Amino acid sequence: MIAPHSRFPVTCIVTRSWQAEEGGMPKQVDHRARREALALALWRVVDRHGWSGATMRAVARESGISLGQLQHYFPSRTAMLSFAMEHAASQTSHRITRQLEALDRPPHPRAVLRVVLAEMLPLGAEARATSRMHAAYVLDALHDEALRELAGAELRQGRAMVERLIRQAIADEQIGADRDPAVETDLLLALTGFTPLLELGVIEPAAALAAIDAHLDRLFPAAS
Asked: Hey, CA dihedral for 128, 203, 154, 92, is it positive or negative?
């Protein structure tokens, strides 16, 4: 879990590595670990100050390193954001996988969708940080063609995964044959629209989960 007000983990990981290099000590450079530590620092800055406050200097300060050291790994804020989103997607995937492994084997598609939808909402510290990073990512993508293509491809890939699951459930007669898989996929993904309502305290997490359960019960009547 991300410690929103602690700079210790990223400072130790990154600063110690640089100290080892600068002191001429034997080194085993793990660039991936350093970049991930810096991505976590970006998450914390965004969580506390929003994307507008997530300058390169602010992230360097959060990490306990110099701006020049940060720029060694990320030449721009956009590059840092792109990697942070890649790391966030990986962490989300790990959380989903752990939850799916706890389900019955084979897992019912309703249970799978419930896990995926709940994880896409800002219901926990890590999911909340990911959600806020994603909001920043989308805003930047509106004005950056390369980011737009990347973000669009990732969203299309995620949507295709959900639609495949829906189509298989229809083929297995777990969802009614009269259901349109494309429409049902879009309706499920529309449930992620609870994010701003949750972030701004308009509804409570229990209400969002109740709505997800109600929708899934209608889609999978035999499983409810």
From this structure: positive
